[in-house]
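All the exercises in this workshop are built on plain-text protein records. Instead of coordinates, the fold is spelled out as a row of discrete tokens. Once this layout is familiar, the rest of the handout is easier to follow. The record below serves as our worked example for the rest of this section.
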Amino acid sequence: MSVVTNSGKPKLAYVVHTLNPGGTERLVADMSIAFSAEFDMLVVCLDEPGTWAADVRARGIPVECVWREPGFDASLPRKLARLFQRQGTQIVHAHQCTPWFYAALSRLVESRPRLLLEEHGRFYPEADSPKRRFVNRHIVKKLTHRFVAVSDDVRHRLERYEGLDASRIEVVYNGVSVEAPLSPEARAAARQELGFAPDAFVVGTVGRFDPIKNLPMLVESLGRVSQTTPSLRGLLVGAGPVFEDIRGRIAERGLTERVHLTGFRSDARRLVQCMDLFVLASFSEGTSMALLEAMAAGVPVAVTNVGGNPEIVTGGETGWVVTSDAVDELTAAINEAAGNPQRRQEFAARGRQRFLEKFAFDRMIENYRQRYGEMLRMAA
């Protein structure tokens, strides 16, 4: 169980599914570390601690797990309440809807903590459940103090599918820190390590290999572009349930020698800088951390017109925006990027400027610092 400290700092708990590699999970780890100087932090995982739990614990932040049972686990609200009681939790920040549901019910046992929901992304396709909307509207919502969505698209989906009031949902965009740029020599060396020639045009992506990322669209486009662009190479960084399927598709298209699959890499942000074009072909997104990292690194981007993507990337100004699952459009975008280095450079520069103005990590942290302060005053 968590160790209760007497630091005098306010007590803040994050509730998340797990700390296994993923965009939401990386954000939870980074935010907990960032706020540890101001708050006594506690991270609670519903399902398993995950790979990044060790990183968080190494910073002196307790990570607890309540080991959720399949289906509705009626024991979870009480387990969470006991953890919050031991910590003296004043604010609970629930990341995504299932953690929010159980954290809200825990307030029926331990009512002191103020509760904030942050929704990061949505399932694809969405599952419509009148029963869920009813429960949220009449029970869960009343136990919650603040509602945050990471994009305007997510805000509207919370209204449509979770029964929340859009007028009460604030939009706070995710943010990432800026990595030190690789020197031209270091970038060339990293590309060489990956097997890319100096003149290779490298198109890539980073993320969990999940059906929602629509990696087959990217593979098919790479196959088409490779027929006219001999220098084309692919760099796909990540792991997940469709990894072997994607490997098979790459082989079927005759791209095995052209497309490099790295698996999970802890240095993914360094590898992004080896790309000449970053592609996000997802069916649905909230605010993609990988996309923000690419823009921060000054890499031009091409994304599908779904979720929060068009709120981040302005088509024709800061990157290419194509229709979801439209292989022809993505192929055209990659071809244009390959043949027009000046356009790539312009998109990259404008994209990085947009990132600095709206999606920097410190900006996001300040937004939550203000909200936590307001919630502490509620609890006073």
Observations:
- The first strand starts at residue 11 and ends at 18.
- The radius of gyration is 21 Å.
- The mean pLDDT is 96.
- Residues 34 and 365 are 8 Å apart (CA to CA).
